[in-house]
Amino acid sequence: PRTIFSGIQPTGIPHLGNYLGALSNWVKIQNENPQDRVIFSVVGWHALTLPQNPKELVASRRDMLAVLLAIGIDPKRSILFHQDANAMHTELAWILSCITPTGKLRRMTSWKARLAESRNANDESEVDESMLNAGLLTYPVLQAADILLYRATHVPVGEDQRQHLELSRDIADTFNRTFKGSSRMFPLPTALITPSKRILSLKDPSAKMSKSAADPASRILLTDSAAQIAAKVRAAVTDSITTGVTYDPSARPGTSNLLTILAACVDEDVHDVAARCAGMNHGELKAEVASAVEALVTGPRAEFERIRGDVGYLDQVAQEGAAAAYELSAQTMVQKRPLRSMSHLRK
Ligand code: ATP
């Protein structure tokens, strides 16, 4: 059987892109693979790479746990826990960081993007990394530790995380090959690339729907009301082609994005959906999209509101999840003792 691990940062209520692109797949994986061990984590330590308001972070952590329960992650079936409740993640991250060349971390596109961002923000032509915190460079090692700590074999990720997963494999392999007696310490984790359902911004269909975009109308949150959903979809950017609906992502990105959303909500092929909507105008298409999104989120939204109010239940899930995660990770850190193989048995 496989051990499947995935994590998500506690950065506010997920949007439709997060849900369709990642989280709904988690539920599928959990439900379709009863023989596998499935582990899902709210990775609070990763959130610290960016400035956080402590009070808000505490609330976001709890909200993300409530969201995962609301969409169907079942703590009886999956290990669901807060990464920052298990200090073994940081212990293993430190060990792994000592066998990871900084050059590999500097080649991560996530790091390069941060550098470019900071360069633009400071209007500097020279790339200067000296002001960026070290966590931004090393968090892919923490990610490797998150995975390897549970000796996970499979990691559901989006295409954008493929490089980080490759690094995790690489680090696992380096560890296994470098230290005597540790050849089977870490299985090499395989990416389960989530079938790509990239949802674009409702306001700028050249960009993905994202939580950090300035305009809140560019994204639909899982907790948006039916009225908010309808208003955001109605105001979505489309094009001025009025004769019918076609799926043509390069010529008609806004319209095609609405079709992508509709197809994902009703779980049908986008071309079938486009054929069905061919005779519609944009107003009719938007009405269809809004009601499909509403139908998709209405259950999870109500569950979220219910669970969020049940602090006792949330605390209990967090506690039991932490205990299960601790027990499993101790099999790696206490029984297999990676540090001992490094310090005493070095080749
Ligand atoms: P940011 O604004 O920092 O890009 P985000 O919430 O939009 O944040 P991430 O936190 O990077 O996105 O991603 C969380 C998960 O959601 C990842 O697995 C990612 O692949 C997926 N995801 C994010 N945005 C989209 C999108 N627009 N369409 C499909 N999947 C997405």
UniProtKB/TrEMBL annotation:
Compartments in which it is found: Mitochondrion matrix
GO biological process, one term: mitochondrial tryptophanyl-tRNA aminoacylation
Documented EC number(s): 6.1.1.2
GO molecular function, one term: ATP binding
Keywords, alphabetical: Aminoacyl-tRNA synthetase, ATP-binding, Ligase, Nucleotide-binding, Protein biosynthesis
Highest taxon above the source species: Eukaryota
Chief location category: mitochondrion
The keyword Aminoacyl-tRNA synthetase appears for this protein: yes
GO CC annotations, alphabetized: mitochondrial matrix
EC class name: ligase
Homology family: Belongs to the class-I aminoacyl-tRNA synthetase family.
Protein name (Swiss-Prot/TrEMBL): Tryptophan--tRNA ligase, mitochondrial
Organism, scientific name: Mycena sanguinolenta
Parent sequence residues shown: 42 to 388 of 412
